[in-house]
Amino acid sequence: MKKAVIIIAIIILLLTTQKKEELIIPQEAIRFRVIANSNIKEDQNLKKKITTNIYNEFKKLDFKPKDLNQARDNIKNQIPKLENIIAKTLEEENQPQEYNINYGLNYFPEKQYRGIIYPEGEYESIVITLGDGLGENFWCVLFPPLCLLEADKTETSDVKYTSFIKEVIEKYF
Predict the structure, then answer these.
(1) What does the angle CA 53 – CA 158 – CA 141 come to, to the nearest 5 degrees?
(2) What is the CA angle 101-105-106, rounded to 5?
(3) Distance CA 142, CA 161 (A)
(4) Are 101 and 79 in contact (CB under 8 A)?
(5) What is the mean pLDDT of residues 51-71?
(6) What are the strands, taking DSSP E only, across the chain?
(7) pTM for the full predicted model
């Protein structure tokens, strides 16, 4: 009986102390999106490589604008550099294809992230479309910097999941 009361108390404690983490994209945000040519593996890998190279460039720039206008100026000034990164990556990967960079109001489909549904619509963003732009896409928020990186299912295979409740029960019972 005593064990059952302890277990119930632990469960109640855990349920009442856990906060659900919510990440809400503000109205005045600038999104970033890279759309792959198609969903074949090579095109998706190329999208990831280009996204990583561009993300690393933004990290080098210490992209932390103070306000929306400064973010807009920074992005507009970086478009030639982004074009060079894309062209260089396409050349290195020996995958010549057309691409387009569009900064302005761009369409985004509905997206669900962490239980919050973000409606489809036109959003201020920089969108890079590779080839025909018919593949899955990557997206995040550049300003404010709330990058919404989704892990691939293949990347989660090394994750070890544990249960705090199970560990407590095994330790004390």
Answers:
(1) 35
(2) 60
(3) 30
(4) yes
(5) 81
(6) 30-35, 99-108, 111-113, 116-118, 121-130, 137-143
(7) 0.70
Mean pLDDT value of segment 55-80:
82
CB count in 10 Å sphere of residue 152: 9
Using only C-alpha atoms, the chain has a radius of gyration, in whole angstroms, of 21
Cβ proximity of 125 and 108 under 8 Å:
yes
pLDDT tens digits, one per residue of 90-148: 999 999 999 999 999 999 888 876 677 888 999 999 999 999 999 999 888 888 877 64
How far apart (Å, rounded) are the C-alpha atoms in residues 139 and 120? 13
Residue 76: pLDDT above 60?
A: yes
Sequence letter at residue 138: F
Token pair 């025909």 in the structure block, residue: 132
Residue 144 in contact with residue 27, Cβ under 8 Å?
no
Q: 125, exposed or middle or buried, with CB in 10 Å at 0-12, 13-18, 19+?
A: buried
Q: Does an H or E element contain 41, and which?
A: helix 41-60
